[in-house]
């Protein structure tokens, strides 16, 4: 009986570790999904940092911007013009007309000195994926996607579907 317990102990430990990893990964996935743009929350995360930009007291945590609205917070894109010292870890390098940008979740960052400035999406930019929330429209049989005032169209880029910025609404970034 004692011999059998010795063999079962490592198996039990492996199952416990696997369960813990599953729970942790599931919690992380839920955390990520709870900070989608346009989500309204009662409170910004306690560990968020207060950033005042254009007379708005944003709270920022892990590159997620919380804008105060009527006693609550709404998750928004970083405002155009704001400067950051560090890019989001998953930001992708994008080159448009010989200018380097970095793209993350619908926002474009332009390097300036030792910082990055959030800028309007440059027309002609190619991105691998659309922002999380977008609207699909069809015009004359052509498919387009709109997110936060930016219009994209799907194109083939080296046998993969990418999305090209084809129009930026002036109202969205004024």
In terms of structural class, how would the helical and strand content be classed? alpha+beta
Largest sheet, order of strands side by side? Answer: 1-5-4-3-2
Q: State the major sheet.
A: 5 strands, antiparallel
Q: Cα distance, first to last residue?
A: 75 Å
H-E string: HEEEEEEEEEEEEEEE
Shape, per Cα inertia axes: globular
> Roughly what fraction of the amino acids lie in strands?
35-45%
What does the oligomeric state look like here?
Answer: single chain
According to DSSP, the number of beta strands is 15
Radius of gyration based on Cα positions: 21 Å
How many separate helices? 1
Mean pLDDT: 82
Topology:
Elements: H1 2-33, E1 40-41, E2 49-53, E3 56-61, E4 64-69, E5 72-76, E6 83-84, E7 92-96, E8 99-104, E9 107-112, E10 115-119, E11 126-127, E12 135-139, E13 142-147, E14 150-157, E15 160-168
Antiparallel strand pairs: 1-5, 2-3, 3-4, 4-5, 6-10, 7-8, 8-9, 9-10, 11-15, 12-13, 13-14, 14-15
Give the tags.
single chain; 174 residues; alpha+beta; five-stranded antiparallel β-sheet; globular
Description of the molecule:
The protein is built from one helix and 15 strands. It is 18% helix and 45% strand. The chain has 174 residues and is of the alpha+beta class.
Give a concise summary.
18% of the residues lie in helices and 45% in strands. The protein is an alpha+beta fold and 174 residues long.
């Amino acid at each position: 009986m004692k011999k059998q317990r010795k063999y079962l102990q490592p198996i039990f430990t492996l199952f416990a570790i696997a369960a813990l990893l599953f729970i942790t990964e599931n919690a992380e996935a839920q955390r990520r999904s709870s900070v989608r743009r346009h989500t309204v929350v009662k409170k910004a995360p306690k560990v968020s940092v207060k950033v005042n930009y254009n007379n708005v007291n944003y709270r920022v945590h892990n590159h997620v911007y919380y804008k105060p609205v009527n006693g609550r917070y709404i998750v928004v894109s970083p405002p155009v013009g704001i400067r950051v010292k560090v890019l989001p870890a998953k930001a992708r390098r994008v080159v448009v007309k010989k200018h380097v940008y970095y793209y993350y979740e619908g926002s474009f960052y332009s390097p300036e000195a030792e910082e990055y400035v959030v800028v309007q999406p440059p027309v002609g930019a190619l991105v691998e994926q659309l922002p999380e929330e977008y609207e699909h429209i069809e015009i004359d049989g052509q498919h387009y996607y709109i997110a936060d005032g930016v219009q994209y169209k799907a194109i083939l880029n080296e046998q993969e579907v990418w999305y090209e910025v084809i129009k930026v609404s002036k109202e969205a970034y004024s």
